[in-house]
Amino acid sequence: MTDLANVIAVGILLGGIYALVSVGLNLIFGVIRIVNFAQGEFVMLGMYGTYAVYNLLHLDPYVAVLLVLPVLFVVGAVIQRLILAPLRTEPSMQIFATFGLLMLLENVVLAVTRGTAYSVPSPLAEVSVAILGAQIGLVRLLALVAATVVAVALGVFLKRSMLGRAIRAVAQDRNAARLVGIDVDRIYMLTFGIGTALAGLAGCLLTPIYSLSPQIGTNFILPAFAVVVLGGLGSVLGAYVGGFIVGLTESFAGYYLDPALKHAVLFAVFIAVLIVRPSGLLGQVGAEEVGLRGE
Amino acid sequence: MASDTVASAVRSRPAALPVKTFLSELPLAVLAVAMLGGLVALYSGDTFTLNTLATALLFAGLSSAWNIIGGFGGQFSLAHSVFFAVGAYTTANLYLKAGLSPWFGLLPAAALAAAVACLLSWPVFRLRGPFFAIATMAFTEVALALGNYMEWLTGGTRGMSIPFRLGFGNMIFRDRLSYAMLMLGYTALCLLVVLAVNRSRLGYYLQAVRDNEQAARAAGISVLRVKLTGMAVSAALTGIGGGLFFMQVRVADPAALLSLFDFGVKFALIALIGGLGTIYGPILGALVVIPLEGWLRATLGGMLPGANLIVLSLCLILASLFMKQGIVGALSAGLRRIRR
After folding, report:
1. Contact present, B212 and B206 (Cβ < 8 Å)
2. Number of domains observed in the structure of chain A
3. Would you say residue B299 lies in a domain?
4. Confidence of residue A295 (pLDDT cuts 50, 70, 90)
5. Is B309 touching A (CB cutoff 8 A)?
6. Which one of B131, B253, B322 would you mutate to disrupt binding with A, by most A Cβ within 10 Å of its Cβ?
7. CB distance A100–B320 less than 8 Å?
């Protein structure tokens, strides 16, 4: 029984991390339908940004958020303007371009750091709390809390704020959005910037958990796509739930089947859901067609 | 551009509209292969260049194979490294465990790769655009986990090696020239198949599906069957390439064979740089990308780790932005300007 509790605890904490990592992709791919294979690299950049802030200014990762977030917002906005804006109606060229971006960012960081693995100590990393008999690291718990807060905030932002409504309007019909006076190009740039900044936030919060390597981004990208698609495209609640589905699937498969097969099971489940319900578990039916149907 | 040349041809000579057929295009293909052969002969004394050429020719074939479904068919598959690995392990296992010569092992490798491809893509072909790409990328991850798990088949993470036993029957040679000739043969095979597909009903169907799936269906094309057939042909050739690759390197692990950067995405990258959905694009792309990459690795790799990939990724981004038709597109645009 304690085994089961442990597996569930591990799964939920992992789910929190996945939910956090994919919240930016949810905005970029789920809402405005830009195919971004480089999203994991933005998380990686967030982690290295945190390291740089720690190294130069000796600030804790949780404080570094204040610097990393705006920087990544600008990075994202610039990338959108230069690379993705011209390719807005060409999903397959977006795949090429963002894969190129993935390789570029990964190898630039590799060249700069010469492949040395870094880690950022945080006083909080040592602390663990006991919940229902399971020992849980505080930093992982914080990631879970942050994922929850960000998901709620993003949901409210998209639903209630003027900018959020504009983003949803652009996602649904960009011509109609332009007709009612929305600056569509600006919305795309802002949304991509916010999505990038959210990836950076995830990076900051993950630095105390993982040791840094240039390749770490590629570990996140497919689970992130799985989370966004599983939960339901464009549904913030869905992406939050999707994180836990992915986390729990991985921890259950790892414990009861074989650790070596956990990713096989996870992605097999993902493919199955993609086939049966491409709009995801909580997405609107037909949501996967948005932005793909004619221009 | 293309339409007005066709229109003028119709106006001037309505009876003899030049329809390109397999036979009418064959001489050009033979010429291309002869030129590649000339290139190999030119460098037959230079071991380093022969190595690069062998790799470039292998990738020319692999990328041409990808181009059948990815370029002509418009289905952005990232699962081709899976078919590549299936071919590699089929050939290697049949050789090591059953003593079957790789020359014959390539046939079951092609058949199995095609079967796996059909089985995997049948359910995901209902997905469109990026969703298809993401699903096929997930296949690569599943295959990697399974490959590392099934040690009896793949040697697991430690990899699998083929003992060095010289001999034509074993497809193991001492000289680099033989490998270059082998890969030249593979490129020629792929080129012929691409030509045959391109000038057949299947080729036109594939392009119709790519350009407008709904219109293709309305015109009576069985979309799923066309996609599956295209995928099977493409995967069979990819499987043969996998077998050849394994016999050339003789040692590999699942992580290397299923690497997206080294294979899955590179097939697509080469096709894009050469010219997506063109007959000779992937071959030109491979002849540019592979030597460039080797040269960059040799000159920059020592100074800066990953520098060769930085340049390559920049090429990829720039090509997707400014050279969507690839080298072939740029060349034919240049030709048109000269003629005018």
Report:
1. no
2. 1
3. no
4. very low
5. yes
6. B131
7. yes
